[in-house]
Design brief:
211 residues; two-stranded antiparallel sheet; elongated
Length: 211
């Protein structure tokens, strides 16, 4: 009888152990075990993850002060002279041109070669847009792009996102005169500084190079 009780007790302990292990492995649907620890250990970015979480998308702050936030995070590749050039190649390699067009001129996705921003223009905001994605079609590339590649893309976007010079003007209808020059088309020159390449604007209805 004593042996029987010991066997029953052993079986009960084994069942309890199995149930305890099972409960310990239960995670939320779609998550992987120890997801937070996994992300913390695998994130090898040049900017700490905690610092990235302090980059606000909004420009509205309680009391008008962004206390504890970092709205003006710097690009860690800002002093790398070749970062924008590498970012231009990344832009094509990962088919950013499919939505934003060559030289970031704008297509299905908004133009990146101007100074108009939807989700703010700091390097941190551009980084988070690429990594997290945004509403209305911007994919989240954080799961597939290395951190350095994302910052190279940020460098490239920063290099092309400049306010056009005064010779471009701003045409709002057909009545005002057209500006004297236009940006060289993307199929003619691929560069990380497209605003540096301009050409005389052809007469209305004419072709480039005509007078």
């Amino acid at each position: 009888m004593a042996n029987f009780h010991r066997v029953v007790a052993g079986i009960a302990i084994a069942i309890i152990a199995v149930v305890a292990i099972g409960l310990a492995l239960i995670v939320m649907p779609g998550a992987e075990p120890n997801a937070a620890l996994h992300l913390a250990n695998d994130y090898g970015g040049v900017v700490p993850a905690g610092a990235m979480l302090r980059v606000p998308v909004t420009g509205v702050y309680p009391g008008g002060r962004p206390a504890g936030l970092n709205p003006d995070m710097k690009n860690p590749l800002a002093n790398d002279p070749d970062a924008a050039q590498r970012g231009m190649k990344d832009f094509n390699t990962f088919n950013c041109v499919g939505c934003h067009a060559d030289n970031g001129g704008g297509g299905m996705g908004p133009s990146l070669s101007d100074n108009i921003w939807i989700y703010r223009s700091s390097p941190g905001n551009i980084y988070m847009t690429i990594v997290q994605g945004r509403a209305y079609g911007m994919p989240a590339f954080g799961a597939m792009l290395p951190d350095r590649t994302v910052w190279e893309l940020v460098s490239y976007i920063q290099s092309i996102s400049e306010k056009p010079g005064p010779h471009f003007g701003r045409t709002t209808s057909l009545s005002p005169p057209l500006p004297d020059h236009e940006q060289v088309p993307a199929n003619a020159v691929q560069t990380s500084s497209p605003w540096n390449y301009i050409e005389p604007l052809p007469p209305r209805g004419g072709k480039p190079g005509t007078k």
